[in-house]
Amino acid sequence: MAVLLDAAVRARVGRVIEELRPLGPGVAWVIPDNLHLTVKFLGGVEETRLADVTAAITRAACRASSFELAVTGVGAFPSPTRPRVLWAGVTAGATPLTGLAGDLDTALAELGFPREDRAFSPHVTFGRVREPRRQPALASALVAAAALDFGRVQVTKLSLMRSDLSPRGARYSELAAIPLTGA
Q: Model-level pTM?
């Protein structure tokens, strides 16, 4: 389940990726067209289960109204000095998105999907470090970009995504768009 980003936000994050690329050897960078905000990762789902999954997502989505996200700042998990995942953050809109993620987790747990072990932390992953190690220049650049503003996204739907992996990277396709219809 994902929130898709508009082209302007993806382009702004893409420019930062290009600035960071020379500082991050060994980072698998996400191409701008693939940038999105994962709300719940399901893993492989059999086609025969898609109708039930979509129904569960719809139950969660009908409890949420549309809202606006602000994509702001960059950082790394677990930290800029020992990065594994590079991300753009979410400021405004984090609270309704976190509530929606919790409702999705509950609805999908009823179908047997495992609940999340960690608290939901809304972010847009834009790079994964292949071999975590100290990279001082990258860490400094991440700290310097901590307040960058990438723009706002109006969240009106959740997208059930399929990812096909290949040597050239992932290719994503939207299987279903479920509107947020809550009051």
A: 0.90
**Active-site residue list:** 36, 123
Q: What does residue 146 show for φ and ψ, rounded to 5 degrees?
A: -60, -20
CATH number, domain of 72, equals 3.90.1140.10
DSSP 42: -
Bridge partners for 179 per DSSP? 157
Main-chain dihedrals φ then ψ at residue 62, nearest 5 degrees: -75, -10
pLDDT at 46: 82
63-73: b (≥16 Cβ within 10 Å) or e: ebeebebbbbb
CA pair distance 85, 83, nearest whole angstrom: 6
| Segments forming the whole domain that contains residue 169 | 2-179
